[in-house]
Amino acid sequence: MFLDPNYIRDRIRTVPDWPQAGVMFRDITPLLQDAKTFRALIDMFVYRYMGQRLDLVAGIDARGFILASVVAYELNLGFVPVRKKGKLPFASITEEYALEYGSAAVEMHADAVRPGQRVLLMDDLVATGGTLLAGAKLLQRLGANVVEAAAIVDLPSLGGGDRIRASGLDLYAVCAFPD
């Protein structure tokens, strides 16, 4: 049970037609609300990365913060927030990415990582892959080595996982929803 991806997948709530008709929203909040399930989820990530000589864990705003900060704590590493544009108070760098209808941008402090640092990049879900790819580009622009991108859920039908792997970045997702 503890390290079974189906245990995690079975506890993700699907909300049909949210935020718009035809979308099947994969809601991770039930995972976070149940202490046993949340621990099992975090343990899956910790066991995967405990021997990988990481320096930092970066998390994508906002649900990626939840995972990445706890995983960083458990691995005795620092945490780097990758924020939505306009949220950082210090000198920052920005990376724009395409959305289905428009564009968005993420930012990091310009001193968030040092060249050569080994960084794990985390988010809750991989849809089109744009946010994780933008986060990886920010880290790489500062000279970091992004060891892997990680998420709870991959939605393969939206192609994000393939886009991430095609960029040369390894991707780990605990579970996938095929549609």
UniProtKB/TrEMBL annotation:
GO CC, alphabetical: cytoplasm
InterPro entries (alphabetical): Ade_phspho_trans, Adenine_PRTase, PRTase-like, PRTase_dom
A GO term for molecular function: adenine phosphoribosyltransferase activity
Reactions catalysed: AMP + diphosphate = 5-phospho-alpha-D-ribose 1-diphosphate + adenine
Pfam families assigned: Pribosyltran
Localization of this protein: Cytoplasm
EC number(s) per entry: 2.4.2.7
Pathway: Purine metabolism; AMP biosynthesis via salvage pathway; AMP from adenine: step 1/1
Gene3D superfamilies per the UniProt record, alphabetical: 3.40.50.2020
SUPFAM superfamilies on file: PRTase-like
Phosphoribosyltransferase domain ranges (all copies): 49-157
Top EC class for this record: transferase
Chief subcellular location: cytoplasm
Keywords: Cytoplasm, Glycosyltransferase, Purine salvage, Transferase
Signal peptide bounds: none
Family: Belongs to the purine/pyrimidine phosphoribosyltransferase family.
UniProt function note: Catalyzes a salvage reaction resulting in the formation of AMP, that is energically less costly than de novo synthesis.
Assembly and oligomerization: Homodimer.
Protein name in the entry: Adenine phosphoribosyltransferase
Organism this protein belongs to: Pigmentiphaga litoralis
